[in-house]
Design brief:
alpha+beta, five-stranded mixed β-sheet, 2 helices, 34% strand, globular
Amino acid sequence: MLDVTVRPMAREDKATHSRAFVWVKDETVMENLMNRRNRPVKLYREIAERGLIEAGIDFYQLSWSKHAGCSMCPCSPGFIVKGSTRKEIHITI
């Protein structure tokens, strides 16, 4: 079972679709920064789909985006969740 947290997006966020982020439990900040561009996207997609299903979130497409959490820089990569509106989903593995 995955640890899934769902919360509404911030009011100032203009995104229309939900965002899903996959986190590795006990990964340090430095490890996260080093691995940010080398994530196993196919594996993360399977994990994200399973987490969304467990959380009862309807979706029809997941699109990987290095700008999912921040449109200015690739600081928070994740999935754009089409079919679900304005939720922020955090999945910890």
